[in-house]
Amino acid sequence: MFDEMKFDRVDMLPEYVFAEVNDLKMSERRAGADVIDFSMGNPDGDTPAHIREKLVESAKKTKTHGYSTSKGIPKLLKAVADWYERRYECILDPMTECVATMGSKEGYAHLTYAITNAGDVAVVPDPTYPIHEFSFILAGGKVIKFAIKFDEKYRIDEDHFFNELERIFEEAPVKPKYVLVNFPHNPTTATVTQDFYVRLVAMAKEKRFYVISDIAYGDITFDGYVTPSILSVPGAKDVAVESFTLSKSYNMAGWRVGFFAGNARLIGALVKIKSWLDYGMFTPIQVAATVALNGDQQCVRDITEKYNHRQEVLIEAFGRAGWHIVKNEASMFSWARMPECVQHLGSLEFSKRLLKEAGVAVAPGIGFGESGEGYVRIALIENDNRIRQAAKNIKQFLKQFDNCKQEEGE
Ligand SMILES: Cc1ncc(COP(=O)(O)O)c(C=O)c1O
User: Fold this and answer.
1) Which of 15, 307, 315, 393 has the most neighbouring CB atoms within 10 Å?
2) 330: which strand partners?
């Protein structure tokens, strides 16, 4: 009924590639299959005890159950500003340059809604975490994408990045208003240097665009790599905001808490839109999030070490199965080029067959954009034994293809 009445905004969203793999995963599970699930960046560990305890303590109080403040309680906003000062020597005003969001995904949806005029253009590197692109599109903007390049250690080719930006600014019929960056990058895990942000801030000032930077995986780094922040560049606050989430660092994905910080005009726009749309997160969540940010960070180091270790287990076990993956320096993922003998399948078909025939779920690279083709993203959310079991299943699976080079034995 009423089919002639269209929902344009919903209709312009493409079929979610991941939905295909997800549906298949569900039907395999319903049929009794044991699926080893590397498909989503949903941390498998518990939220550290001291954070859970603070939530309970705060929820037991009687004054914490009403509407909260949409922009975040003052203590949480101060914790955000202190976090930036401690890590990045960046001084922020908690009340005008920081805002708490219900996870960073909500922040992206509403920030872009607040700041995008019809037809505004944003530049987003490809492949990309889908909300980085579709938040602008849903808000009525347009997105120009370009393929990023990285080396064998997943380090971004920064000259290539800036050459591409220069080219886009020369060629675009409408001058881009926003550039979105996300390093450590989802899905490729790629990283950048501090100098990258020095160049980006200088370019933003020269060409007059705002930068939105996502450092969701900023804590999860290995082998001495430290995530730089755009906000540590002098003058960055004139042109940039940055987001962070507690989902990954503290295994708090279900709690829905993150924050944005930086340029007061962009933060003010997000605060204003949010004040019309929500009443803030449940206060005990904000109190517990404050404790997470201010408290002992050993839990973050433990979580990071778990992903580092799993990545090493994966590289070793998958390598024996004939799938050679290179170690990255950050995030909870491996961005794995598919073995040569299955490249002809494409990443979607490969992921579907891997699920059906080997009981292993991964995210097909094409779901993150055209230049994700040939790769899959493996989230390190299964334990060592399950990773080794997946490798055995994959070894069997790959045997059907010609020229798959595998080691003998288990
Ligand atoms: C790069 C990146 N940014 C943001 C998010 C959203 O995180 P949340 O909404 O849980 O804060 C994710 C989630 O996977 C992500 O990978």
Assistant:
1) 307
2) 221
Please check whether residue 164 is in contact with residue 170, taking contact to mean a CB–CB distance below 8 angstroms.
Answer: no
Tell me, what's the pLDDT at 408?
A: 61
Neighbour tally for 379: CB within 10 Å: 24
Separation between Cα atoms, residue 395 and residue 321, nearest integer Å: 4
CB 253 less than 6 A from any atom of ligand 1: yes
- What's the CATH code, domain 66-294? 3.40.640.10
332-349: pLDDT as tens digits: 999 999 999 999 999 999
Q: Within 31-171, where are the H helices?
A: 49-60, 74-88, 94-97, 103-115, 130-138, 158-171
Q: What is the DSSP secondary structure assignment for residue 297, as one 8-state letter?
A: T
CB 245 within 8 A of CB 131: no
The CATH 3.90.1150.10 domain(s) of the chain lie at 8-47+298-398
d(CA 96, CA 43): 32
Residue type, 348: L
User: Distance, CA 171 to ligand 1 centroid (Å)?
Assistant: 31
CB atoms near residue 21 (< 10 Å): 23
Quick check: CB of 242 below 6 Å from ligand 1?
A: no
pLDDT at 16: 78
Domain 8-47+298-398 has CATH 3.90.1150.10: yes
* Dihedral sign computed on CA atoms, order 83, 298, 61, 259: positive
CB 303 within 8 A of CB 331: no
Please identify every stretch of the chain with a pLDDT value under 70, giving residue numbers as ranges: 407-410
> Collapsing DSSP states into helix, strand and coil, what is residue 142?
strand
Cα 248 to ligand 1 centroid, rounded to whole Å:
8
Ligand 1 geometric centre to CA of 105 (Å):
6
